[in-house]
Amino acid sequence: MADILKGLNEEQIEAVTNTEGYIRVIAGAGSGKTRALTHRYAFLVEELGLSPEEILCVTFTNKAAREMKKRIRGMIGDINPDQVCTFHSFCVNVLREDIHIINYPENFIVMDNEDTEAILKNVYRELNINTRAMTFKNAREMIAFRKNVHMEHIPYITALDNRTLKEKYIEAEDINDKIFYGYLYEQKKCFGLDYDDLLTLALHILRISKEKREKWQQRLMYVMVDEFQDVSPHQYELAEILSGYHKNLFIVGDPDQTIYTWRGADISFILNFHEFHEGTKTIFLNRNYRSTPNILNAANSLIKRNKNRMEKELLPIREKITPVIYNHAKTTKEEAKWIAEQIKRIVEAGGEYRDIAILYRSHFVSRNLEEVFIEEGLPYVLYSGIEFYKRKEIKDALSYMRMVAHGDDLSFLRIVNEPKRNIGEKRLKLLKEYSEGHSCSLYQALKDNLDNSLIKRTDAASFVEVVEKYHDKYKEMEVSELFEGILNDSGYQELLRTIGENDRLENLAELKQSIFDYEKNSGEENFLEDYLEKVALFTNIDQEERKSSIKMMTVHSAKGLEFPYVFICGLNEGIFPTKHASKPDRIEEERRLAYVAYTRAENALFLSDAEGINYDGSFRYPSRFIFNTERAYLEYTVELEPDLQEEAVYYIEKTEGGSEKLRNRLKIGSRVKHKHFKMGTILEVLEDKSAYVIKFDEIATPRNISFKIPLELI
C-alpha cells in the first residue's frame, strides 16, 4: 500500500482510498487527476483484491485510455485492464455480448466516418437528392439528433423485417425523412452501426432487459468516469445504470473546463451530482503542479467571472515568478512578428522550439503566423489542421487564379471539376490524347473540342467562359477584385455556401485578406503573377515535422496537454470569443475555453491581439478575456489607447447586457458627453439602428450616434 500511495498529496490519497459510495473529485487543471485515477485503480486491485473485470474506468479518448493503462501496468505489473477504455469501446463490449436480444447479429460492423459518407452518397444517388437541398454535414447532424435525442432509429434497427423501413425510405415526402430512413435502411443492409448507435443501442438493451442490466451491474463493482464535466445525457445515464447495484460511482472532472456543450456535454451533471446521489463525498484537487503562480493567478481571476461554476481556486506549488505578457498590435502581421521575436528570445535563452505552443480559437488565425514563421525560418507543425496554403479550398482558389494567368495543366486538372462539371475520366482521356497530339495544354484542348459531342454534354463551356473573361482583363484588375470575381462566377464560393462549409469560407476570407496585405505592401502596381510567385514560396517550403518544431493548434486540440511556453493569439472580440457566442451561457463556455488555454502553460504565458476588421465588418477590439484578467497579473507591452479601451469596454458591455441594459443606462432625456461633440441630450433610442439620436448643445441639428461609441452620463 505504501508504494501505491507514495508521492500522492493528502487530497489525492483521500480520493484513492475512499472506495465506497458516491465520490466526486473536482480536479483543477494540472492537479494530477490522472495520477489519482490510476493509483485508485491500482489500489482496488492490489489492496482490495479486486479483479480488473470488476472495475470499469471510462474516459473520452483512446489516447487517454492508453496512457492510463500504461501507468497502471507500471505500478502493478502485467495485468489486463481492458475495461480502462472509452464509453464507445465499452458499449461495443456490451453489444458483442448482448445485441442478439434486439435481433441484430453479433458480427456487426462498426462504421467510421467514411462508411457513413458512403451510405449517404448512395442514398442521395438512389433518391436523386442534390447536396444543395441538404449538405452531408447537415444530414449527419439531423441523423445524430434524431438518434440521440428521440432515439427514433431503435424500432427500425430492432425490427426483424426491413419492409416497413424500405417503404418509409421510398415513400417519405419530407427530405429529412427520406434521408433518415434511407440511411437506416442502407446501414442495416450491411449490419453497420455508427458511433451514435453504439451508445444508444447499448443503453437501450440495459433499459429494456432486466436480465442484461443486472448482469452488467453485478459484474461491475466499481465504476469510475474521467472528464465527467464532458458527459452527455446518454453517458450520464449509462454510468447511473451500471453503478445502480453496488452504488460505487467515482467521478472526476472540472466544471471550469466544460468546453464541449456543442457535443452534448451538460455542466449540470457534475455541478449538481450531490443533489441526486445521497451521501456524495466531494474532494477538491486544487494543488497545481504545472504552472507558475502568475499564470494561475491570471487563470483564476479570469474564470471567476463565470457565474455557473463551483467556487474553487488553483493553488501553485511552483515558486518561480514570471509575468504573463500581453501584447496589442496594430495589424495581424505585426502580431505574428512579435510572437516570432519572443520565440527567438526563448530559444536564445536555452529553450527549444518543441517547448513552444501557439493556441488559437479558429484555424484561419494561423495564416499570418505561418507566413512570418516561413520568412523567419522558424520550424512549426500544425496539429489537427492543415497548413494554411495546403488546405483544399486555398489550393483550389489559387489554381483558379493560375488558370487565368497561365492555363497550366496542374491547375486545370485540379479545378476543372470544382464545382462538378461532368468532366470525368473518359472526357479527360480524350483531352489528354488531343493535347499530346497537338502539343498544347489541356485547357487549349478543351477550348478546341467544345463542339465535340462528348464535351457538349458537360458544363465545359461555362468553365471556359469564366477563364477567358478574366484572362482578357486580369492585367487591368486588382488581384483582390479578380479573386472575388472568379470565385463568384465559377460557382466555387456558392458551392461551399450550399454545402455548409463555413470553415472553408472563413479560410477563403483570410486568403482574401492576404491579397489585401499584398496589395497594400506592393506599392502602386500589383500583378497577379507576382502574387502567385509570392504565394508559391509559402506553398513549396517543406514544413514536415522536425525533431524540434513549434506546435500550432486550436485550444480544443490542446485540451489535456501542457507546454513550457504558450502563446494565445487572436484574442479579439469576434474571434475569441467567437462571434457566434451571443448568449450568456455561450460566453461562459468561451471563457472556460480561454481558461483551458491559460492553464496549458507551465513556465510562461503570452497573450496577443491585433486591430483590424472581422469578416462581418465589425472592428477587432481586444477580447473581453484580456479585461476579465486582473491587470495586476498582466504585463502590457504597450498601453492601450484610452479611446480604444473605452470603445472596447463599451462594446463588450453592449454585447453582454443587450439593449435592455443600454436602455437602463441611457434614456431619453439623459444628458451625455461625447468625446468630440461635447455636451448633448438624448432625444430617441433607435434599437433597430443600435444608435441614439442626440441633440448636442453646440450643433444645430441632431446626430445619430452608434451604441458602440462611449458616452459619459452626466
Question: Which helices and strands appear, and what pairs or packs with what?
Answer:
Blueprint: H1 2-5, H2 10-17, E1 22-27, H3 33-46, E2 55-59, H4 62-76, E3 84-86, H5 87-98, E4 109-110, H6 113-127, H7 136-148, H8 154-158, H9 163-171, H10 175-189, E5 192-193, H11 195-208, H12 210-219, E6 222-225, H13 233-242, E7 249-253, H14 268-271, H15 273-276, E8 281-285, E9 287-288, H16 293-303, E10 315-316, E11 324-329, H17 332-348, E12 356-360, H18 366-376, E13 380-382, H19 392-405, H20 409-415, H21 425-438, H22 442-448, H23 453-456, H24 460-471, H25 479-490, H26 492-498, H27 502-521, H28 528-540, E14 550-554, H29 555-558, E15 563-568, H30 584-598, E16 601-610, H31 624-628, E17 634-636, H32 642-665, E18 671-674, E19 678-686, E20 691-696, E21 703-706, E22 712-713
Parallel strand pairs: 1-7, 1-8, 2-3, 2-6, 4-5, 6-7, 9-10, 11-16, 11-17, 12-14, 12-15, 13-14, 15-16
Antiparallel strand pairs: 18-19, 18-22, 19-20, 20-21
Question: How would you explain this protein's 3D organization?
Answer:
- The protein is of the alpha/beta class.
- It has a 7-stranded parallel sheet. Strands 3-2-6-7-1-8 form a 6-stranded parallel sheet, sandwiched between helices.
- The radius of gyration is 30 Å and the shape is globular.
In short:
The protein contains 32 helices and 22 strands. α9 packs antiparallel against α10, α11 packs across α13 (233-242) and α16 (293-303) runs antiparallel to α30 (584-598).
What descriptors fit this protein?
single chain; 714 residues; alpha/beta; 7-stranded parallel sheet; 6-stranded parallel sheet; 32 helices; 14% strand; globular
